[in-house]
Design goal:
Length: 366
């Protein structure tokens, strides 16, 4: 594996493909961390296994597990899913597995962004994060991909969505947060995204999902379903704090033009009723640096937008909410050539993210 420091993907003719483009596989990480996953992570593991199985109908899945969890992961996952021992601090493959880019010949390279647990010592979510930060490079080695060293720029995979045709969507509270790249201006951040993702237009949303502890990652509020079309997390409840937030995002999307000069078609994906964490769930979580990880009644950032687009299916969360059915139908209409599989994901949500956050696609080399 070559570590590339002197050129950028744009200079070398690489771009980040849309998630809806063909994949050669998907990466996940087995859950273990006791202040993220309640009661020994047993329920979370079951949900992760269901997600891995659903994706494996479409594409090969590799699950990384610590030495301590290797036997459990191997026993819990079917034989056709590869398990490799790799240490990490937690299980968010979207955020610290490599972002992969591709050139016209179908060659794939990885990007190793800096990772500091969503805000480092300023407002990060745990310490240390050193093992997470090593994963992109280790995974590029494992998958035999050359890797761009961009550790001097803090970015998580869940904070970007691209259409593969030159457009990237981000949220301002995340990309401009003080815990990530406070020394950089918005223009400098945009230029970095241009150079590394091979995009020409960056669309800035003013916010994400209420109480999303990632500083409001885009992958919980808005996602491309194909070039020119996005889904946006939506509520009709004017009393909900999310109402203004989703409306502000709609206004930004309606104003925007993508890299090809198109206006975006926005499909609204209604949210479930607010999901809050219970006292019993909180009691199953270890404290984080001596502080309670979650407080009973805390609202979790539940959103159906946090789905994964696999080659032949869509793997989306359900919350045991009456809206689950409508959300599934909406995504099925938007992806008529993929089968939508809905997985009960409360046990992933309690960790602070959802199905998109625990997966990272590797583009196909075609
Ligand atoms: O990408 C994500 N949504 C990850 C959030 C991690 C939270 C750690 N508890």
């Amino acid at each position: 594996m070559r570590i590339i420091k002197d050129t950028t993907p744009l200079e070398d003719g690489y771009r980040m493909p849309g998630e809806f483009e063909p994949h050669q596989g998907c990466i996940m990480i087995f859950p273990e961390r006791p202040d993220s996953w309640q009661y020994g992570a047993y329920a979370a593991r079951k949900a992760f296994v269901k997600v891995a199985e659903a994706i494996s109908f479409s594409e090969p899945v590799t699950v990384c597990a610590s030495a301590a969890q290797y036997d459990n992961a191997r026993a819990a996952l079917p034989a056709h899913i590869r398990v490799v021992e790799m240490s990490s601090n937690d299980s968010w493959a979207r955020d610290y597995a490599p972002t992969f880019v591709k050139n016209k010949e179908g060659q794939i390279r990885g990007i190793d962004w800096g990772f500091n647990a969503w805000g480092g010592l300023y407002d990060g979510l745990y310490f240390p994060w050193d093992k997470d930060n090593q994963m992109a490079r280790k995974l590029c080695d494992l998958f035999e991909k050359d890797v761009y060293d961009k550790r001097d720029f803090i970015l998580e995979g869940g904070s970007i969505h691209v259409d593969g045709e030159g457009t990237c969507i981000v949220t301002a509270p995340c990309l401009l947060s003080k815990g990530r790249n406070p020394q950089m201006s918005r223009e400098e951040i945009e230029e970095t995204l241009r150079q590394y993702l091979g995009v020409s237009v960056v669309i800035w949303l003013p916010c994400g999902i209420y109480n999303d502890e990632t500083n409001e990652h885009v992958d919980n509020i808005c996602a491309f379903v194909r070039p020119g079309e996005v889904v946006l997390a939506w509520t009709q409840d004017k009393e909900d704090v999310q109402y203004e937030m989703s409306n502000a995002c709609l206004a930004a999307l309606e104003q925007a033009r993508d890299a090809r000069g198109r206006s975006l078609k926005v499909h609204k994906l209604l949210l479930p009723a607010p999901v809050t964490v219970t006292k019993e769930e909180c009691e199953g979580l270890d404290s984080c640096d001596g502080e309670p990880t979650r407080m009973p009644g805390e609202r979790l950032a539940a959103s159906y937008v946090n789905f994964y687009i696999a080659n032949k299916n869509i793997v989306m969360p359900g919350f045991g909410d009456p809206m689950d059915k409508l959300a599934k139908e909406t995504l099925q209409e938007l992806f008529p050539h993929r089968q939508v599989i809905q997985i009960y994901a409360r046990d992933i949500l309690i960790g602070g993210g959802n199905i998109h956050c625990i997966t990272q696609q590797i583009p196909a080399n075609i």
